[in-house]
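Let's practice the habit of predicting before peeking. Look at the sequence and jot down your guess about where helices and strands might fall. Then scroll down.
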Amino acid sequence: MIKLINILKEVTNEIYRDDPNTWTHVTNKFETIEGIKKAKAFWGLSEDDSEFSYEINKGVSANKQNQNSPNFYKGKLYPGTEGTLYLIAFKVNKSFPGDDFESNDWKTIDYPLIPNGNRVNRISFKKSANIGILKPEFRDIKNFKFYKYDLNTKKYISFKV
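Done guessing? Here is the structure:
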């Protein structure tokens, strides 16, 4: 394993850095990486793209929306997840609508993520604590960078899927 990581360092030499235009997802499951590779897209386990919902939960009900969609965290690693084995990063090339921007119709907003906290779609990223889920049209594998945690350097190093 260490040999593989050293080879990856030599080949890519790309190390993950926090970036306000990057959204991250972390996992310890190699099966997640294999699933993305096989599907050529990033869908959550048991997620059905035909059931993807843009609806904003306006009440206090416990209705869940997109509960099987992978969560992404804005700008850095989700607090407390440093050292998680795999990191999946999505770089946004569109302007962020702003931390205080609120919308009841994220389907029409030209941004690749919608706010979703505690498995409920939210009106803003501020209300979702900077957690979002990708809209279906942005799930293609080509939109992601993959990193593996190097125990020696304590950094995430890029690898190809």
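How did you do? Residues 15 and 157 are 5 Å apart (CA to CA).
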